[in-house]
Design a protein that fits this description.
By secondary structure, this protein is α+β, with helices and mostly antiparallel strands. It has 2 domains: about 100 residues, PH-domain like (Roll); about 50 residues. It has 3 helices and 8 strands; from the N terminus they run ββααββββββα. The longest helix has 27 residues. The model has no long low-confidence stretch (mean pLDDT about 90).
């Protein structure tokens, strides 16, 4: 799951302090990224070897390199845009949600822990099974980048904590 309890709520006292981190799923790990770029470069180079030593080789090479660097740019941009993290911190008196967006901006919300309600919107949100925290005259989303099943599991865990 792309979220984990850094300090989980203790079993005898579910109202104990705890902290959870949430992040978008990264389907291409760094090792897979290197392999994908390497295999793509190899597959582009194989047909190019037929023209080695001719003028056609030098005519095709810039376009094939442009395609390879375009692919690398797109993968890098996707990875950079997915650098989002949400940190939910719950102590004995207050609940805080801090979100760091991919562009470096910060968003935060805090409320008295005992006034927080966790809500699941099966069809009313921008995504199915939209999870929100309501309290302090505001309602904020949490884990909107998670999959539908992960949001259901997140909702169940948060209901047990609040």
């Amino acid at each position: 799951m792309p979220y984990s309890w850094i300090t989980p709520p203790s079993a005898p006292d579910p109202k104990s302090p705890c902290e959870m981190h949430l992040w978008p799923h990264q389907s291409l790990p760094p090792k897979g990224y290197v392999r994908f770029i390497g295999m793509t470069a190899l597959l582009i180079a194989l047909p190019l070897l037929v023209f080695a030593g001719s003028a056609v080789f030098w005519g095709l090479l810039p376009f094939l390199l442009l395609a390879l660097f375009g692919l690398k740019y797109a993968l890098d941009r996707n990875r950079r845009d997915a650098q989002v993290i949400e940190v939910l911190t719950i102590d004995t008196a207050e609940a805080r949600l801090a979100r760091r967006n991919s562009d470096g901006t910060q968003q935060s919300w805090h409320c008295n822990r005992y006034w927080v309600t966790v809500e699941l919107h099966p069809t009313d949100g921008p995504v199915p099974n939209y999870v929100t925290l309501r309290g302090g005259h505001r309602e904020v989303e949490i884990g909107a980048f998670l999959s539908e099943d992960e949001r259901k599991a997140l909702y169940d865990e948060l209901v047990g904590v609040f």
